[in-house]
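To whoever is on call:

I kicked off a structure prediction for a single chain this morning and the downstream step that reads the tokens threw a length-mismatch warning. I double-checked the sequence; it's 303 residues and nothing unusual in it as far as I can see. Pasting both halves so you can look.
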Amino acid sequence: MTAQVTRKQMRTVFAETVIESLASDPRVVMLTADISSWFFWDVKKEYPDRVLNFGIREQAMIDIAGGFALAGMRPVVHTYAPFLIERPFEQIKIGLNHQDVGAVLVSVGASYDDPSWGRTHQGPGDVALLDTLPGWTVHVPGHEDEVGPLLRKAIAGDGRVYMRLSERANGEPVPVTDGFTVLRKGTAGVVIAVGPMLDQVLAATANIDATVLYTSTIRPFDHAGLRAAVADARANVVLVEPYLKGTSSHEVNEALTDVPHRVLSFGVWRDREARAYGTAEDHDKLFGVDPESLAASITRFFN
């Protein structure tokens, strides 16, 4: 009988990695807004000047992160996605981008990990919003084992990095790379699975002659990897992202500017809101990203 292995959540791996970095890198400062602050209670006793909780003052937290960055520190900033990106967006724009300094922003909650909290805790527009600002690297890990390598690299650098954690994860990790990993080859088209959407995509395409690409880093977008995949298949591109539908469509179009192609996007609705809250799986079905809905839509598109 095989013993069942208990998996860590992405948020736990994030906290463990930051705690390691606090000990090994004197530049690192950890900023929280109540959310997940309990992970850092013990280490705060050791580094009281580098572990700070701002309560629900997210705008101030981002501006102070910019101040730390200007002073040569490496701020890691964390809370729920809508409170990290949407609420303090002006501070991100001015305090980080306009000052041309870096920080590592790490969110939880994703688009609808726990719909019972309602719309206030849902952040499907986060990546699209950051797309209006230059110079951001965006990581969307699909498994807890992908979090550590991505986060350690982000902390060691000095750029602007957004890491979007989810409470939902794929069954198996994919080795971390800077671009797309080819998981399956086919001829009818290319399906791009971003982060925690991979399991749904693999199940949906099990009987479809498609190339499946996976990435845990969506910005910068791997133009060369997509072009290589399209060279071996029809230029029918399906984009399955765990946030706002069509967020990366413009990147697909830029990658294939000189290649006649078609794009079908999946994600959270752009044109209307979901005003009833069930489970995360209910929302998958509502938005058409459950395996059965994806399989039917992709088949129609390829045919």
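Update from on-call: the warning came from a stale cache, not from the record. Cleared it. Sanity check on the structure: Residues 19 and 43 are 7 Å apart (CA to CA).
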